[in-house]
UniProtKB/TrEMBL annotation:
Signal peptide range: 1-28
Protein name per Swiss-Prot or TrEMBL: Tetratricopeptide repeat protein
Naturally occurring in which organism (per UniProt): Hymenobacter rigui
InterPro entries named in the record: DUF6340, TPR-like_helical_dom_sf
Keyword flag Signal: yes
Keyword terms, alphabetized: Signal
Matching PROSITE patterns: PROKAR_LIPOPROTEIN
């Protein structure tokens, strides 16, 4: 059974109405292709972490690094746990490509080198048999760096019935960088993907003193966790087609056409069937501007229903027959989506519902 390539999110449908505009924005979710293709016979996967220290020497260096960087000992371990958890959750939440087992394997094997040699194929196959999966997504390298910068700035204090006064504050910026190394192992126990990924986030706080400014920043462990969650999600999207947000504009009115007005009311109630009926009526208007906008809206309605060929036909009509400039750009977006959908179909091949 085919998985849906487009997910309408009517419960989260956003209608951003602007009084001075004649458009509104609607939202949907569409499957975007993965960066790499996975084997077709790999349907069930488990996640694993391989960055646990395997010697007292490595444990010592981890604690020492935490002391000197200010991150605190063991915060990297919390980051690795968040990172691998994020991969599994993102695959479950955002992609129908894999069935993810709840197992989260902890494998020994970290050294001071960033990437270890790949796991032995026979060992991977043994782990897969034990977990009843055909593949493993393994976090094999993890490192974090924190950078603190401070500067002095002047602020103007305004108080009622008092003259303005200027005060000096200390502004502290904290940048947290996380670098990870992932490998995905396939049914034969061999590496089917390997990627080094990096992401960072920044936080800023200010106070009367440096210590006061620091107190306003989140704990380093929480910062590492937030960046790790992002990196995990990014790797999940690398190996599996994943839903992404898509926004489309709709015309809400055109030269006081009553059908366009009625259709807008149906959209506000998320009644797309009735809205499309109103736009079909508006498309018969002899005024080219009204008809063009109606056909444009019909294209959006077809896309919302998962019918890209139908959406492209309506967008072509709005663009070529009624010379609607916005429809030309929309047509290009639809054609790009159609090409992406073909890639997704190949990447999803054989996925069971």
């Amino acid at each position: 059974m085919k998985r849906p390539l487009l997910r309408s999110i009517s419960s989260c449908l956003g209608l951003l109405l602007v009084a001075s505009s004649c458009t509104t924005t609607v939202h949907m979710q569409a499957l975007a292709p993965a960066a790499v293709h996975m084997p077709r016979d790999m349907q069930r996967i488990a996640t694993a972490s391989r960055v646990l220290p395997d010697s007292r020497r490595d444990k010592f260096f981890d604690v020492l690094e935490g002391v000197f960087t200010g991150e605190g000992p063991m915060v990297d371990r919390a980051g690795t746990e968040a990172c691998i958890m994020s991969v599994g959750e993102s695959l479950v939440r955002n992609s129908p490509r894999f069935r993810v087992t709840p197992a989260n394997l902890q494998l020994q094997g970290r050294t001071r080198e960033f990437f270890l040699p790949p796991l032995a194929p026979a060992y991977v196959q043994q782990l897969c048999r034990t977990s009843q999966v055909e593949g493993l997504v393994v976090l094999e390298a993890f490192d974090s760096d924190m950078l603190l910068e401070q500067k002095k700035e002047e602020r103007t204090i305004k108080e009622k019935d008092k003259p303005d006064r200027k005060v000096q504050v200390t502004v502290v910026n904290m940048a947290m960088r996380v670098v990870t190394g992932f490998r995905t192992y396939g049914p034969q126990g061999t590496v089917v993907d390997q990627a080094k990924q990096e992401d960072r986030l920044n936080w800023t706080s200010e106070g009367a003193t440096y210590q006061a400014a620091l107190a306003g920043l989140p704990a380093p462990g929480e910062c590492i966790r937030q960046v790790s969650l992002r990196v995990g999600d990014q790797y999940a999207r690398r190996i599996a087609p994943s839903y992404v947000a898509v926004s489309r504009d709709l015309y809400t009115r055109a030269r006081k056409d009553d059908f366009m007005r009625q259709a807008q009311q149906r959209v506000a109630a998320t009644d797309w069937t009735q809205a499309a009926t109103m736009w079909q009526q508006a498309a018969r208007n002899p005024d080219a501007r009204v008809a063009g906008r109606a056909f444009y809206n019909l294209a959006v309605a077809q896309e919302m229903n998962g019918d890209l060929p139908g959406a492209i036909d309506y967008a072509r009509k709005a663009a070529y027959d009624y010379h609607l400039r916005a429809a030309v750009a929309y047509l290009r977006e639809l054609q790009a989506r159609q090409q992406a959908e073909q890639v997704v179909e190949q990447q999803m091949g054989g996925t069971a519902n």
